[in-house]
Structure formats: structure tokens, C-alpha cells
Specification:
This protein has helices at residues 2-22, 32-39, 43-49, 53-73, 94-100, 102-110, 115-133, 145-165, 172-183. By secondary structure, it is mainly alpha-helical. The termini are far apart.
Length: 205
């Protein structure tokens, strides 16, 4: 049991060190020497767990994705029928998940060279939304499920991206509350006074 805990601790240290180094250099420029020095471990410990830095990063992404799925599913637990109107900020765990893995999200979202991993998370979210929509009891049959899933996935990830890029200035609870308001349709029923709208050219300055 001690060996298992020690191994898990070493792997966590390597993942933390990798995220720190990714703030300083690109993934393909990080060496194993860089990594073990930052984690205060030796090369033998690294090779005991991984064959390459790419394998380590892939495992980190897998960890994040697994926790993302659990966070996404949280509102559905312990209920037979899910309704958006029953959501509250404590049952929405997506933003708590992002904050838990804040170093990962900050690194991936702010690094163009890691865009593939951002796309991977969006695709995961899209698949979760698409799967769930098949179980919606009062669905609008005119809506294309693929387009709906894509729209919602990019919309939610857009909220996450904005939150990350503004330095997590709001609490996870506040972000959850805003998401619930959006999902409840409160912002979709607004009436716009077009007589007071500015010219499109005003947005170009």
C-alpha cells in the first residue's frame, strides 16, 4: 500500500512539474532532465512510470477528461428526471472542476501549440451533450442534434475560456449561476430596442 501511495505521489509531482514547465516552454522543448529536476525526482522514477513526456501529458489529459465527465454528470445523479429549472449553483460542478485543474486549463487555453487538446475537450463536451439529448422527453424534432450539440459545446467552453483568460475573477458558484440563467432562457427572451442600436462601424474602433 505504501508503494502505491508513493507511486501516485511521484506521478502527481511529475504532472505538476510538467504544467509548471509548460508555462515556460513548449511541450516539445521540455526534457526529462527539466522535468525530474522540477519535480525533485530522479530519472529512474520517471522511467518507472512513463516511456516519454508525451505519455505523461496524455495521462494528464486523460485524468482531466475523466474528472470533466464526472463533473458534467453531477446534476443528473440521484434523480430520475432532470430539469434545468431544478439546477442550482451547488449542483453544477463544471466550474469547480476547471478551477481544480486551473493550471491545466490556463496552459492549454493560452497556448496555441496545445490547441489540439482544447479541441479534444470541446469534442468530449459535444459528445456528452449529444448523448444526453437522445434522452430528452420533450425535444424539438426540428432541431438538428449534431448542430445543437456543437452550439452548446462551444458556448459552454466559451464561458470557460473567458473565465480562464480573465484570471478566474469570478467564483465557480457565480459562473454556475450565470450558466443556469442562460440555460433557463432568461437571456433569450430579451427585447431589443433597435432604434438605439449603434452603427456597426462603431465596433471597429
Amino acid at each position: 500500500m505504501k508503494e502505491v501511495r508513493r507511486g501516485a505521489k511521484s506521478k502527481d509531482a511529475l504532472k505538476k512539474a510538467l504544467l509548471e514547465l509548460l508555462k515556460e516552454k513548449d511541450l516539445d522543448h521540455i526534457t526529462i532532465t527539466d522535468l525530474v529536476h522540477r519535480a525533485n525526482l530522479n530519472r529512474g522514477t520517471f522511467y518507472y512510470h512513463y516511456q516519454s513526456i508525451a505519455e505523461l501529458f496524455d495521462e494528464l489529459v486523460h485524468d482531466v477528461c475523466q474528472d470533466f465527465i464526472e463533473a458534467y454528470k453531477a446534476p443528473y445523479l440521484q434523480t430520475e428526471r432532470f430539469m434545468v429549472s431544478n439546477l442550482n449553483s451547488h449542483s453544477v460542478n463544471i466550474f469547480k472542476h476547471v478551477l481544480t485543474y486551473s493550471e491545466f486549463y490556463s496552459t492549454v487555453i493560452c497556448s496555441p501549440k496545445l490547441a489540439a487538446y482544447e479541441t479534444k475537450i470541446i469534442q468530449l463536451l459535444r459528445n456528452l451533450i449529444r448523448r444526453d439529448y437522445h434522452f430528452v422527453m420533450n425535444k424539438n424534432k426540428k432541431v438538428d442534434i449534431e448542430l445543437l450539440a456543437t452550439y452548446n459545446a462551444y458556448a459552454l467552453f466559451g464561458l470557460i475560456t473567458e473565465w480562464v483568460k480573465t484570471g478566474y475573477q469570478h467564483s465557480p458558484e457565480y459562473m454556475a449561476e450565470q450558466l443556469i440563467e442562460i440555460l433557463s432562457g432568461n437571456v433569450n427572451s430579451v427585447v431589443v430596442d433597435t432604434t438605439k442600436m449603434t452603427q456597426s462601424s462603431d465596433f471597429l474602433h
